[in-house]
Every structure is written in C-alpha cells, then in structure tokens.
Amino acid sequence: MTGALHVKIADNIREQVRLGELAVGSALPSESQLCSQWKSSRGPVRQALATLRAEGVITGGAGKPPVVCSTAIGQPFDTLLSYSAWAQSIGRTPGQRTLELTLRPADEQASSSLNIDEGTPVVQVLRLRYLDGERAMLERATFVEHVGRLLFDFDCDSGSIWAYLFSRGVRLATASHNIDAVGADPVDATHLEVAEGSPLLRQRRSTRAAGGEIVEFHDDRYLPGMVSFTLENTLDVRSGLVRNAKP
Fold it and tell me: Which of 158, 179, 198, 218 is nearest to 75 (CA)?
C-alpha cells in the first residue's frame, strides 16, 4: 500500500472487516497495540480510527474501545460519478449486467430531471451492479440523446459508462446528489432479489457538462448492507466556504 500512514492503517482495518476477520461487534486492537503493530505514534492511529468512525465502520471513543459496527463500505461523494472507479479504489471488483439500453420519448420525470420537453428523445440504461460478484445496486440512468447515443457503440457490460463517455469527449463538470431511503419497487425487488418494500438507499444525481447543460440523471438503488455514503468537508480559511474533499 502507498500513501500516508493513517490511510494505510484505515485501509487495513477495512479489509479485515470486509474479509470477516473483524466481525460486527468485535473489538479492534487498542491504540497501543496498533501503534506497536504499525511502528507509529498515536497521531496516525487516532486519525485512522476517526476516519473509520466517520464512515460508520466502527463505534467507540471517549475512553471506550473501538468496536466494529458495520460491514458496509463507504462510498465518498467524489467518486459517485463512477461506481467502477470507487470499487477499484478500495480494492474491490466491480461488475455489471445491462438489463436495458433504449431510446424512448422523455416522460414527465425525465423531462423535469433533464430540463427538456416531454417527448424529447432520451437514452435510458438499466444495469444491475455487482461488488465482488454480489448484487449491490440497481442503476437507472437517463441521458440526453446526443450523449446517450454514444452508448450504442459501447458494451455497457464491459465497465464504466462514465469512463467511456469521457473517452468520447464528454466532460462532466458538476453533479448534484440527493441521498434518501426508499422501499423496493417491483423492478428493484426482481433484480436485487429482495421483497417489495424492503429498505434501499437511493442516490439521485443530476450531472452537468462544462457548458452547464444537464446531460444525465441517475436514480440508483443500493442494498444498504453493501454500501454506505460518506462526505468529508474542509473549510477554505480564505473564503470561509466549506468544500468537499477526499477522505
């Protein structure tokens, strides 16, 4: 592993949780033990534990030993444009199976989400996404026609749509995300193999190109035991603005 020591420590603990070496309810080694294991001062160890607490992987603090409380892997906002890139960044294997790729007239939801007239042609994609071979998310994506048409020359089972569009000159500049919880509808239930009404994490995203045009809208439904969402902010002391930053 490369990078700062606190990142290495956090990554190592995440991997132990993922592999089941540290089960939910298990206590982590003490700070002293982690310092000895990593030949580190307490600073990097405490920073790694703070990161894992913020992600919801562990609990504890203020004199209480850290305990594993979740096996869900956090997905930071800065990688939400590409599920594949996020999975690979944490050492996991992404996968996908395309269920639908079609050109159709925009309905009320698509027209509102993309700021276009109803009936305007759009391209819609429905994909089942995997994490290490397990079902993790049902992806619903709607693209404006001139962007979506590029996908008819792409094998959507082969990898990242975002990376392919970037290779074709599409520059996605900004994204707006909305995260909430919904009950599984019949389509979710069928493809994620859960009962209708089961709780799912939903991520809705509108993405704009460099010129400001909304070019895609996502409505993605995640199995909550497979993924969680994290956001870390930093304060720009010069402007007083809070900006998103990588964990």
Answer: 179
Rounded to whole angstroms, the Cα distance separating 4 from 125 reads 39
Q: Where are the beta strands (DSSP E) in 106-225?
A: 121-131, 134-144, 172-183, 199-209, 214-222
- Tell me the per-residue pLDDT of 174-215, one tens digit each, with 9 for 90 and over: 888 888 999 999 999 999 999 999 999 999 999 988 788 999
Residue 43: count of CB within 10 angstroms of its CB: 11
Give the pair of three-digit tokens for residue 127.
């994909």
Give the integer Cα–Cα distance in Å for 241 and 52.
Answer: 25
Residues 191, 99: contact at Cβ < 8 Å?
yes
Q: Do 227 and 247 meet the contact criterion of CB atoms below 8 Å apart?
A: no
pLDDT in tens, 151-172: 999 999 998 898 898 888 888 8
Q: Tokens for 38? A: 């990593």
Closest to 222 (Cα-Cα) out of 23, 83, 88, 55: 83
**Residues 138/189, Cβ–Cβ less than 8 Å:** no
Q: Are 97 and 142 in contact (CB under 8 A)?
A: no
When pLDDT is averaged across residues 13-26 and rounded to a whole number, the result is 83
